[in-house]
Structure formats: C-alpha cells, structure tokens
Amino acid sequence: MAETGRAARIVLLSDVHGLAGPKRVAAAAIRDLAEGPGLDAVVLEVPSSEQPWIDAYLARREEDASALLARPTAVHEAEGQARAYLEIYREVRRVNAEVGAARRIRVIAADVDDWPPPEGAAPQDVATRYASRAEHMLTRMDEEILSIMPEARLLVFVDGYMALRGGFGELRLAGGASRRVTWLGDLLRQRSGPDARTVLIDAGGTTGTVERLPRYRGTRLHRPLGRELDGPAGTRVTDAFEAVADPVLELSSPGLRLEILPVGYTLDDVADGYIYLEGGR
C-alpha cells in the first residue's frame, strides 16, 4: 500500500461486505501510508450524517468506543463486522496521537444518508439510491478536503464496485428498465488520472449469489490463484491478468441484476493493484 501511495495521492481500497479481513487491511494501510508517503484523510462508505459523531470520537482525549458502536451505520453493524470496522477509526486515533495536530488524519463520512436502504425498499428505489452514491461521495470529498487541500493524500475505503476505476454498471430491473451506475473510482480517475489508483481485495466469492443489495464479493481470479499461492499476497495489476475476461463477480438482488460493462473488460481495465486474501482473513 505504501508503494501505491507513493505513486498516487488517492488510493481506493475495496471492502468486501461481511468479511473482517479487508477492514484489517484498511487499518494497516492507514499506518503504512501515514508513515510512508503521508495521509491527510480516510474516506469511508458511511452516511455523511454520521460525521459529527466520528469527529467527536476522534477529538476526545480519552477513547470512548461506545460512542461509535452506538451508531450502527458508522461501524457497518449490519455486516456483522462492527468490531473490525471500528479498528479503522481506532488506527486513525493511534496514528493521530503519534503525529501531532499538524499532521492529524481526518475521517470523512462520504456516503448518501439513505444507504443502505431499509428492508423492503422497492427495487427501483434501491437502483436510484445506488446510482446517486458516487457523485455524492465525490461532492463530500470536495467539500470536506479537496477544495481546501487540492493535493491531499487520501485513502478511500469503499465497496469494490465503487472502487473500480473503469467501465460502468448497469442495474437492470425485473420489469425491463435499467439504471446506469458510475463508479467513484472512475470519477476520480477521470479527474486525477494516475494520481488516483484502485486496489481490489479478493477474498473469494460465488458468482450468481443473491444479495439484498448490490455488493462486491470478489473476482473469478480467486480460485485459480488460490491453487498457486500459499497465503495472502499483493501485486500490481499488469497485462498478465488479461487471460480472464469480465473478472469481477456480478451479483443479483431481489428485482435487480447488476452488469459490469463493457463486456470483455479485464482486471487491468478497472484496477491497478490486487490483494489476495484466503477466505476473508
């Protein structure tokens, strides 16, 4: 991660819903980047209305984790990994205590306030909300830091779909309508070029899995690579990955089907780095 951070100011790192491993990678990346090329802010896939509670948690002289654990969406409680997600905030606190006020890292809650939607939300409402998220996140980043510090160094920890730096999504509804989705990684790449880079975490998933919401689960590369690797590994994405077309798993939710387009893309079209984890560890 430090190598990627030296090459780019903005590093997008993919989360994988329901797994603790990617959260641990994100927490470790905070320290790697802070001690290496530098880090000004961590951008999280958390409703922006949670910002006051996050700021209060980080500002307290003595840590009070209960303040964040009492905010279910701030720690992604619905994933069942609240403690792992909390470690991201705790690592920011630890680093800030060491570096002093002048180099203090901020945490930016960037997501829309109505995500994830409530149980039973109509598919068309889910699609509309989902499609609005990338633009909202970019606006939040602009408002909170990039308009003030255009050269800020950021770690952006979001769902793997939102981290993709190329292509686009098509959410197809059961009735035949569809909604185009732009990825945050693509918006940042269009604006910042190679100064924004995406690292995909792959912890193994199942294609065709039905989820309540569109969520990244991994790639088709995990199984074949698992036969060759002894444990977790990270690498730059090169044309060696071109043998597998359409590598990112596409998941369905009730009344919705996500397609990643254009058909035939390869991993080097959508990511700059790849991290292999065994079973989410």
Descriptive overview:
This protein has helices at about 1-5, 20-35, 50-60, 65-70, 80-100, 125-145, 160-165, 185-190, 220-225, 265-270; strands spanning about 10-15, 40-45, 105-110, 155-160, 170-175, 180, 195-200, 235, 250-255, 255-260, 275. Strand 9 (about 250-255) and strand 10 (about 255-260) form a beta hairpin. Helix 6 (about 125-145) packs parallel to helix 8. It is built from ten helices and eleven strands. With about 280 residues, it is α/β, with parallel strands linked by helices. It has a single domain, classed as Rossmann fold (3-Layer(aba) Sandwich).
Features:
alpha/beta, Rossmann fold, seven-stranded mixed β-sheet, four-stranded antiparallel β-sheet
Write down how many β-strands occur, each being a DSSP E stretch of 2 or more residues: 11
H/E element sequence: HEHEHHHEHEHEEHEHEEEHE
N-to-C span: 17 Å
Strand order of the largest sheet: 3-2-4-1-7-11-8
What is this entry, summarized?
By secondary structure, this protein is α/β, with parallel strands linked by helices. It is 35% helix and 21% strand.
